[in-house]
Design brief:
single chain; 176 residues; alpha+beta; Tetrahydropterin Synthase, Chain A; 2 domains; three-stranded antiparallel sheet; 3 strands
Length: 176
């Protein structure tokens, strides 16, 4: 029955109108496809540019500010007495006591577990210094940073500021 009505409508309609309907449908189809492509492309571009950025979450920032800072853990290192590197055939000795600062109990355990390796590395490092290098504040600071670096390598700290030795503090430093 629907076919009869459609056939009658086509027979009554002039030839121009019968062809106009398919053209309108094809134009509408092309417009819809174009809009979908543009929308999808725009969405894809937005995703591409923003994928690495994390949205700012005020709750997370507020929680981080409210978290109390972990108290540091200090690890006392036994006294070192070493011969310093000779210059001008003079013998000089260094006697030093220090403490390591860590913020993670796991780092504390790792340092204590690998203490023989750390002491060996420190003996080699200290005995390779000269009196002139260690007399200045800058020399002592460089020695401190070298000790931190070596210790973190030994305990295999992935993020030294979190899971490694954060600082070295000299509690006694004598050169003779």
């Amino acid at each position: 029955m629907a076919e009869k009505k459609q056939a009658e409508a086509e027979a009554e309609a002039p030839e121009g109108e019968a062809e106009a309907k398919p053209k309108k449908k094809s134009k509408l189809l092309i417009i819809i496809i174009a809009l979908l492509l543009l929308g999808g492309g725009g969405g894809g571009a937005a995703w591409w540019f923003l994928k690495g950025k994390k949205p700012h979450d005020p709750k997370t920032a507020a929680q981080k500010q409210d978290e109390p800072e972990k108290p540091p853990i200090f690890i006392r290192i036994d006294t070192f007495t070493v011969n310093l590197k000779k210059i001008n055939a003079e013998d000089h000795f260094l006697q030093v006591e220090m403490q390591f600062k860590v913020v993670d109990p796991k780092a504390d355990a790792a340092v204590k577990l690998r203490m023989p390796e750390i002491r060996n590395a420190l003996l080699l490092l200290l005995s390779n210094k000269t009196q002139e290098e260690l007399l200045t504040v800058e020399g002592k600071q460089k020695l401190s940073s070298d000790i931190v670096t070596q210790s973190n390598q030994i305990i295999r700290a992935k993020e030294p500021a979190k899971d490694g030795v954060v600082g070295v503090y000299f509690t006694s430093f004598v050169i003779q």
